Amino acid sequence: ADYTLRATANSNENDEDYDGLVVFKNFVEAASNGAIEVELFIGTQLCSNGAECLQGVAGGAIDIYISTSGGASGIFPYVQVLDLPYMMSDDRIAEHVLSGNFTRTLRNMALEDSDNTIRLMTVGNTGGWRNFANTKRRVANPADMEGLKIRTVVADLPQELVKSLGASPTPIPWPELFTSFQTGVVEGSKNGITDIMGMKFPDAGLQYVTLDGHAYMGALWWMSNERFLAMPEDMRRVVVDGFYALQQATFASPKRKSIQAYEDFVAGGGDLYVPTPEQKAAFKEAAAPVYDWFKDNVARGGEIFGALEEAVQEAETSVNGARDADLN
Amino acid sequence: MGALLAVLAPLAFVNSQLLRIGRAIGIVAVALMVVAILIQVVFRYVFNNALPWPDEAARFCMLWMTGLMAPTAFRRGGFVAIDMLGHALPQALGKLLSLLLLIVSLLVLAIAVQIGFAEVTGFGGKFATASLYVPGNITLTEWIRVPRSWMMMSLLVGVVLLTLVNVELILRNLISLIGGNDRLPAIPDADMAGAD
Amino acid sequence: MLIWFLPVFLLFLMIGLPVFFGLLAAPGILLWLNGQERDITLLYRNVYNGMDSFPLMAIPFFMLAGELMNKGGITTRLVEFSQALMGHLRGGLAHVNILSSMLFAGLSGSAVADTSALGSMLIPAMEKQGYTRRFAAAVTAASSVIGPIIPPSGIMIIYAYVMGESVAALFLAGIVPGVMVGIGLMLVVRLMADKYDLPKAQRIVNPGQKMAPVEYWVSFALLRINLASLLLALAFGILSQTSLDVSGITTFVLFVVLIGMSHLLLKGLRGAVSEDFRMVCKKAVVPLQTPIIILGGILIGVFTPTEAAAVAVAYALIIGFFVLHSIKVKEVPGILNRAGITSAVVLLLVGAAMAFKTVVSLSHAPEIMADFVLSLSDNPLILLFLINLLLFIVGMFLDAGPAIIILGPILGPIFTSMGVDSIHFAIIMSVNLTIGLATPPMGLVLFVAASVSKERVETIAKAILPFLAVEIAVIFLITYIPALSMTIPRWTGFAN
Ligand code: NA
Ligand code: NA
Hints:
Strand order of the largest sheet of chain B: 1-2
Shape of chain B: elongated
Largest interface: B-C, 57 and 61 residues
Order of helices and strands of chain B: HHHHEEH
Largest sheet of chain B: 2 strands, antiparallel
Radius of gyration of chain A: 20 Å
Number of strands of chain B: 2
Strand content of chain B: 5-15%
Distance between the termini of chain A: 51 Å
Number of helices of chain B: 5
Shape of chain A: globular
Largest sheet of chain A: 9 strands, mixed
Helix content of chain B: 55-70%
Oligomer: heterotrimer
Order of helices and strands of chain A: EHEHEHHHEEHEHEHEHHEHHH
Bound molecules: sodium ion
């Protein structure tokens, strides 16, 4: 092969990141007629978190890397815009937003802030939507969150969100989370259902899930800009199309994977609660201080917030228009 | 030998002083680590309010503890090695072997210093830590996040100190190779190697 | 091509390059020869990233707690306590040596600390009673490997970190294997006592000891609280079988009643033993509270293991300053200094090994290794046997920490994919490599025992063989009976 691309994801082979990479590898290797080879490193073999891996991308040791918004927020704080609660209402809206110019805006901002070293290729999904889950009680209204100790990562935004809902944010490392549920160090978390079931959290008492869908778990796919631009345009086109295929795969994969996860959760005695539109509106209202916090405290927060708002509006118009057209 | 001793004496002095300062800061860092984690425990269980910063602050201290204190262990011979062969060889040959080994470690350290410098000043250092802040101005009205480079500096300082120690050890080895063993200045607390 | 870094690494190790430099030089050279300069940066970066970890912080903390606890006669208290329990048997001091190691294991996570603390005290005492010096040193070395098997354990913290397991689960899984090693060693002493007519010892070394009022009341309270908590846990165990719902108030009342019961129970026991025996036991209460705090705290979920370690440090300080008056303020910097230097070396080694591990993955060594292992046999029982042999040989030359970081990611997945529980495999690997600390030619614990006893390493290495035989037997028992390690973590819900 003329180009060997080294791609890494910190998850495992059961994750949708891996599904995406397999699709990408297959597409790119076939479409380039073998000129591009993709080498996959799944797990923490090369680097183990966003800061380390993005450093690897900038320095040229890693070509392709998928981070969550939390993972990239140390250098591109505004990517946390994806963690803002209740911005996008469902999969169709989110997919429309992320397929459009919003992602290009994000790409340009990241290129500016990384001295043109790190290029955002696409934004897919990893794990569906974040929901609140806890070991104590059914959460139907924001008031039910009062006093719950909710596990968050060490980052301001999720902590602000948990606080604004009256709960208390507790940073716990992921590997210790199972034990922490069991022993009551924390009483809840904000994760997707596949992560909850993958880690067997219900066995540790996590039995109440509220499908509030407060955040879309965006997967940011980064590539070394130098590596990308060093390819001729026809090869770049293959790579870009490869990332399109990857994005579609990661949009679809969590939907398929979550079916079994939800069934297993309910079969294990779990309480799955879907809030009414009124309750969801109440959650959104309770979380509103987070928007202002984001615009005031996060570098370039206002800029990206505006871009997302605009993209969501455009998506709603377009998707709702399509929906209406399909009704009759 | 006179020339070698003339180079060794000031280097040994400088190393002794630098490592003493390193240990002093290291001691404070160990103490702060314990304090940070205890604060975390107290806030979580007594006040039911987990703080975001103790985890990262304690890791900050741990990395600096490592960078500043490991060179002392290296100087005192506390880096684990299988030294059977060196002991089995005739004395002069054994010293030649350890000279060779010291040169290999010097190479490793020299490359590490180069990379370390590029890392600290490069892109990775620009990341902000997640939860550590320092005052951005004198009136404390503005707080900025501690850049990751302040943490990454610990290993760079560590490998620089290790390099200085390594050079000293090479000089000592050379002097003892040409029979000047009894003229070497002593390494303080050399018996307290402190390896596990 | 890249795979050649493994033999190069072994060569460097054998000619005496410090492990830290070997871990970096060997892969570095091969990457350079392979034209992969960009990955040499990755190597450096992963030394740093490898050390930057919250769970690893437990290593300096447990080191510190052990150092603080070791100050001012705590070792003496544990030894006297062991002697009061086992000194009267034949081979008394040898038994005492082993039991002290088991108790000391609950305070410290390192075998080396155990060897130097107990060895400097017990080897001369055993010699005085007519044991040979090499036997005394061998018992000390063989029993001190219990240190990192019974929690807390530096080695298990490293394993959990590298493999993403729960530290708490590994700690709990190590209890039974650690006790088994202790009992196994005692059986050897028992057999030797018959053969060589080993002497008995007195149960009470220093009769007529006194205790300051503060310590008296602290240990008075601790004993009752511990006993009542144990009874309370039992009561909850029974209640959880019924449908009764226990409220906070009921729990409190129950606890107060149980404290009263404990008091009466202990009062009843008073008459059964002599005044001196009671004093020796009382003096062990305060030090032995440390493992109770660590394990109890982790079990009821108050702390993560790193936090438990920090709390153990705080406990040791409070006890040292205010109860036992065994530590002086001016001694503290020295203690911090020693713990800092020792853990700095360990952390640097962990970092280098994590960097090495990166190159292990880049070279596809795990896949090559897995294919090779599976080509030998597809029977997990046979493979476990072979892996134990391999680990034992590795343990003869390499320290447990680096060996775990390098081999864990290669071997662990092979066995978990064959259905071996990951925690069970962790224990097999940790126990095997820990015992490697006491095997010739490269056993750290042997070296320390040699320097403490002024006996030659080779002589101790010969005298330790019968004890090693038992320890190997224990390795195979825990390999083939998973329940030995898995029962406690399963009971307590820390493993599935
Ligand atoms: Na221990
Ligand atoms: Na012992």
